[in-house]
């Protein structure tokens, strides 16, 4: 009996010794997990139903399809042979250990802002995953961009390597928010428009909305009467990022996944920081004049009104008022009025589902209308919702619908 | 909870080329349903596509009785025991053949050639279970024909009947709408709305 | 040979209202739960969305939400001396299939039974003497009381967001509610629905006659609502497609819209669809259920072992599974022996139509499944039955449910069956007719029961269950009494003419009446009078529980869903608080 007890005590000691020798491992790991979520690494580096982080997801870019890397610690196909330094270089410079350049579908243009400490924590966490053997396909990129060295030129034009210097007259929270949003959280990857060569536009164009996976990611700029977050309060934005919805809207499409896999895990401080940063963005750049509403007696509007009354009003309300916290209002909706109608049209064609979260488990979904409404009818009702209930936005043509169908 | 963009389970579209009736059967059913719902200021059953509706229905799962209990033995039931005939398509085939043969045996004109009053009397006889048929139950046939006629006449046009929603216009039913909140307080005044079909652009 | 699967703590057979309730309650207590559903997954925005749900042909008449009789059905006869024949098509009642079960296509009329309903025998004997229980009437007390169920009624109403007005708050009678109802610990979670014109006609007439009309308790939302599980329901849009249809915009409480969003997230819950359970297996000593045997959609057979089995199918399937598994003795009406299949009961319906001239438009399509006004003066024992020759009763209501024209095209008496006269009458009456109905209790009788059919078999080769049922004198007298009251109110509603439709006898299985089948695995206070104890635990196998209206010893005058749910919560509470600590009989026989 004594021997057995001795053995138990001994093994207990061994455990304690291990724990002590790596005193920071546990907290580093937790931090790594947290930052991996903030960066939403899983979104690109996992395929639904497959092992997480084993890569292989095809990312359509304007130039061809790029396949996300296997970032499990598998020696042959993943990061198993990588050092912490090599990982940091890939994150911040877009260069692999073999010297080849990464395509900017991997957002190193953002991750360049990530501190060494944060990068190391992520690397430590990724190294605790089960290694998965998964040889990811090569990208399908046409010449000359398929020559990875071509990225050198691209980088010269569009890549500002380096850290963000704190802005002294802004709060600590604002600076933290900026660090996260511009860096690991890479919000601009979707919400900032890109130029012809796929680079995010800078300056006042940043965060004015972009098209991603065929969805229009709305502007995050402030300012009354503008698009995007113009009329959202700080509480609205925090509720949205934490719980996937607020009184104005629900996360759907790619943003639903972002909430589910990333923003709902943000610490209270980081959530507040990101909100502080975005609510402080200068007003959006208005392209010329504000849109004039399409006339009420326009044939598209009268036809659209009839379609709306029979197909849409049950949820979105006879006056476009929606149902608070359940069905999005159309009246005053920045999404409905966004200059690019892509999202509105796609939602009508394919439907959309609100992301279910712990606080809001109901995944209210809009049904798909592709089987029911013609291109012409979708265009009419889209034009209507963009211009009824006090809204104003350019009309949508049947051709636009046909292209998106 | 699984969900995919674009996922939908729309109604099965009417297909006029998928049919069951022979020419004689079609003529019989046309004559019969136009006595059940004749033309007046509003169209008759066949004018609204009721025959096309029934013809198509009998050619599919309904006609075959796919989700009905169709195992034997088949016996004549009591009036309270419900449908005891073969699957609906076969019921139509047997009943129409029996009626036509019965008329011919008695040197009477074909059903389609009878005077309207005579057609009515014959249909009424079937409905009361007075006339017996050789291979199936007369009342079951009448009840099924009547039920299918109502379905074709008042059902959504996506299924081939109720053409241009004329039956709905006749009674003032606004069709496949989903939101009547603006009219809750109608106070006994008629709510007049153009009907709409569940099929949208699928309506032929 | 069946493949043997890893054991689960709890297996639930059937995934409708009570399957979801039990799964939610038991997973919340940390139990590992697997639900087996013969049908498929289905959800609002895809399978019955606002853009495809309003289709009478597809849903009502081609049975899209109802069960597939080619797989299994029952045979039917009115009396034991007749030859039972199969129910080949659905008619009188419409059980559902697929995730959500029959609850997906209900109207949403959500009632509590009266306190005295739970003491049906002792209460009536005490008030009217032994003679009140007529020959062959086999009613009995439930073994559970209203007071025991009250918290569970209350919780279910909050899960559903029932719209209504309390009539009795902790014993205080409230204006505008049902003064006859049992005490309620709290007000309904949502205010009553806004009334359209027809129920207001009924309300005014009933008031004029001295009755106390109140808004029907409704699972159609009067406003947006978030339930205790955080699940949201949207305001009802009065589309008039509730019963026989699924709701397209999240405004009718069903398992899918109130429980599943929370339940499906839980890691200790698994749902397996396409699993057709053939029987419950027992150990060699016949003292415990060991699991269930089921077929998947490919026809492969599996044995799913479980520490606890809950049968949560529709009553006919629960009873059938007991019979097919040889659990308990099948009832024999000759000897009165055996409990399985005993005390089958139903609902007895009658009504009247009020026809108006053109000056009053009903707009029947502006409606909802549980939108209406009700009086409860003639339900249960709310009135003196002395000298009436019957016990029991029912409510009288004007529900403005729908204007779906295939199903609903009333015509006055004397209208030809078909033809030009019929067509004209339909045109003139469609928008000008208001129905008033009586929804009556059906007592249990020796001659109304379920057993196995000697001739017909299902798609799996098992004998079909056989239903023997007819309305008996007590209930016909009761119904006719209520019909007289219906006519009285109908005549006071200011129409041009009234046509009265008394109950049709004998009971006919073809025309739709109501999906309120009850009994067959009834509850009671000892194994000599019931299949389950007051916690719906099998007397025979203590790790087997049965939920649903099969537990009702007889059927009171209200719609059953509220009580079906309250019994399930009551059962789940006993499992959580008593059975888990000491797995065995919760009531000693």
TrEMBL record, chain A:
PROSITE patterns linked: CYTC (PS51007)
Residues annotated to bind heme c 1: 41, 44-45
Principal cellular location given in the protein's record: membrane
Binding site for heme c 2: 187, 190-191
One term under GO cellular component: plasma membrane
Localization (cell): Cell membrane
InterPro entries recorded: Cyt_c-like_dom (IPR009056), Cyt_c-like_dom_sf (IPR036909), Cyt_C_IC (IPR008168), Cytochrome_c-type_DH (IPR051459), Membr-bd_ADH_cyt_c (IPR014353)
Protein name according to UniProt: Mono/diheme cytochrome c family protein
Origin species: Allosediminivita pacifica
Taxonomic classification: Bacteria, Pseudomonadati, Pseudomonadota, Alphaproteobacteria, Rhodobacterales
From TrEMBL, chain B:
Top-level taxon of the source organism: Bacteria
InterPro entries in UniProt: Gluconate_2DH_su3
Protein's recorded name: Gluconate 2-dehydrogenase gamma chain
Source organism per UniProt: Allosediminivita pacifica
TrEMBL record, chain C:
Domain Glucose-methanol-choline oxidoreductase N-terminal positions: 182-344
Keyword S-adenosyl-L-methionine applies: no
Domain (Glucose-methanol-choline oxidoreductase C-terminal): residue spans on this chain: 448-568
A GO molecular function held by the record: flavin adenine dinucleotide binding
Keyword Flavoprotein: yes
Keywords: FAD, Flavoprotein, Oxidoreductase
Family: Belongs to the GMC oxidoreductase family.
Name of the protein in question: Gluconate 2-dehydrogenase alpha chain
Organism from which the protein derives: Allosediminivita pacifica
